[in-house]
Amino acid sequence: MKIIILGAGRVGESVADSLVSERNDITVIDTDAERLRDLESRFDLRGVVGNGIEPAVLAEAGARDTDLLIACAAQDETNLVCCKIAQLLFNVPTRIARVRSTGLEGDARLLGAEGFAVDRIICPEESLTRYIGKLIDYPEAMQVREFAGGRACLVSVRARHGAPMVGGTIAALRASAPEVAVRLVAIYRRFPDEPDRFVACAGDTRIEPGDEVFVLAAQEHIAHVLSALHRRDARHAHPVRRIMIAGGGRVGLRLAQQLGQQEGRFHLKVIESDPQRCVELASVLPHDVLVLQGDTTDEDLLGDEGVEEVDLFLAVTDDDEDNIMSCLLAKRMGAQRVLALINRRSYADLMHGTQIDIALSPAQAMLGELLAFVRQGDVQAVHSLRRGVAEALEIVVRGDRRSSRVVGRKVSELHLPRDVHIGLIVRGLPDATAPAGEGGAVLPEPQVIIPRSATVLESNDHVVFFLPHKRLVREVEKLFRVSATFF
Prior knowledge:
alpha/beta; six-stranded parallel sheet; 22 strands; 29% helix; globular
């Protein structure tokens, strides 16, 4: 696929890194020639120096035969205008814009063909708040990713010594609850002086303390799975209630607004160093959110505000170093769980396995929304995992036995790559491609199915895969692609 990325900042760089690794033809436009040279030296892509809203620059970047435009420059206005020019002058088929403003999605006329001609708006801050919200709902989890409209979830959790499922084999766990819609799809195990190693989930594989376990399950079983792998001690006996947010920027404000709307559920404190910004925060946040002016790495301030009683400490400033240091300090002082927002990928890699429970990259949080547009076939959801190395993929089965390699076939008959796991099948979801139902017919409740060797795939099944290596993606997509006889 030929893709133009407008903007070589943090988001643009992360998007380019992910898409180049999948053998796409990438061109990046930016006004900073030095930054483009740096990207060209590190990735297999082409840089074009210039302003992305100038038709001549878009033409030089190859807009006339481009499949996808991703406009992620710093300014909303630049991204919107670029999408409109790409539509009017170059007829670029798919246009995605990074937009921070929250007022555009409410009116379809603004984004439609007669407006700014944007097929999809992405907002890293909004993606982050949604993602962190899931981590608050499931405090034992390190990652929570949704599929099939939230009916199924992929979670990763650190196995704890003494938890009911830790120490047993996967076969024994399956035998203990054969009808429960839960499937262990991957284990990453720590070894001294080397990166975590992928462990395939065979029947005789034993879950060891310290393993990072990836589990696909129906939404209603997630809480049980997490408690079985990560035993709750006295501090974990209650859900997250006390939250401290370090940083009152765009992310911190969105988080505080989202959490503050759930009256009575959380005790929220926001720490911000800029006095003027504190005034702004206090004027727009609910009255029961406490806004504090101070340094997020100030030990005395954290102690005075009872950081040792905090269930979740969120460091979301624009400074990676401050986020890392404040999380390490909060953890040392007794905070139950800490999350650091880290833009630099090298920093995020270094923090993995340290006292920081979750190192979260803004670009990784929203990357799946972009990847769904790049994937071939009927891909519904994509989630980038393990800092971009692994991936979870939701594909809808289309066609019939004549036009599809998978419809009517048993799982054992599918020619999947060796390490690819079919985790779950969601059957009975409404078909978005079919015409509206007639006569107000009531559809049966969708089923979440654990696939066995004899399970037969049906058209419109939503199949969720775990892929430990992104290089396996194309093989899976090819298998599920329908032939030209399918209309």
